[in-house]
Amino acid sequence: MTAEDEDWSVDGGEEGNFDEDMAAAWEAELANEAEADLDTSTSASNSAGSERILNQDEIDSLLGFSLEEDDDGKGSGIRSIINSAHVSYERLPMLEVVFDRLVRLLTTSLRNFTSDNVEVSLDSIASMRFGDYLNSIPLPAILAVFRARQLDNYGLVTVDSNLIYSIVDVLLGGRRGTAAMRVEGRPYTTIERMLVTRLVEVILGDAKKAFDPLTEVDFDLDRIETNPRFAAIAQPANAAILVRLRVDMEDRGGRCELMLPYATLEPIRKMLLQNFMGEKFGNDNIWEGHLATEIWTAPTNVRVVMDEFEQPLGRMMSLEVGDTLLMNAGQNSKVSLRCGDIYLTEGQIGRIGKKVAVRVDAPLEGVAKKALVESQQ
Predict the structure, then answer these.
(1) Which of 7, 265, 287, 306 has an alpha carbon 20 to 30 Å from 26's alpha carbon atom?
(2) Looking at the predicted structure, is the pLDDT value of residue 283 above 70?
(3) Can you say how many angstroms the Cα of residue 190 is from the centroid of all Cα atoms in its chain?
């Protein structure tokens, strides 16, 4: 081996060592990058996992459910969205009394109408949206649209098919002890519609009598429909009162439903909120009478004005004892009676004994009465 060979071998060894050092450095750098990427992905996965995982309280808050239910039934979150489809309105206690009276009247009227043993019962009084009710009517059925004249709005009477065929069977002499025959797939005949119309007129007549102790309302039959779409008397989202009545005639019978939109009952809403007939909603009649008596006997200062004229302020400030002011009023001139700045009436001044008196010659002015009332408000 020569020197050149020896030098080459030495240089080659140094170059090999350099390559090994570079490879080791690259491996270390790649390992650090891989470790950094692993830490980043781990932290990202941990952060993503923390966003997706909710505890039970957060889930209940999102859904609007909790172990301690609210008494008012109002939820939050998704539960409030679900409950928004339900209608919950204030109770009308006097309306329940009216329909209880309707049941008693209708029992007697239907017995006279059918000459049969009829029992009418009140199933339920509920609030619901008008559109939901139209969609829930079982067909076939007859819907009678009526108008509440004094309330200036409409209502709906629905007679189901069982009651229709039962009424037809009873009025046309059907045998007792047999169920009413139903013929599906055909429209109601003219005779059936006329008989149901008479039934609806009896119901509306008794409804008028039931409302009489509360207020005078005349229910006039407007039209008869068999398609619920043609009986739309209110917007689908409007709230209404639904009264379900059950009519039993021994082994036959059916249901009759009375629908009254809240807009129809709004003019008499204050009356329907009463807990008993004639309730005054907390007004104290004794205190009202006492206050009226005290106001009636309260002392009032009345001024008698003989004349009015204008004078310069300087002359009025320089008045002395003995100065005379001339007025336009004469011995027989009228004087005006005033309460404050309000003109009441006029009269004649005179004397009774040692006192000056005024005789009222005209009644109290209507404008004065109005002004006095407005001043007290």
Answers:
(1) 7
(2) no
(3) 40
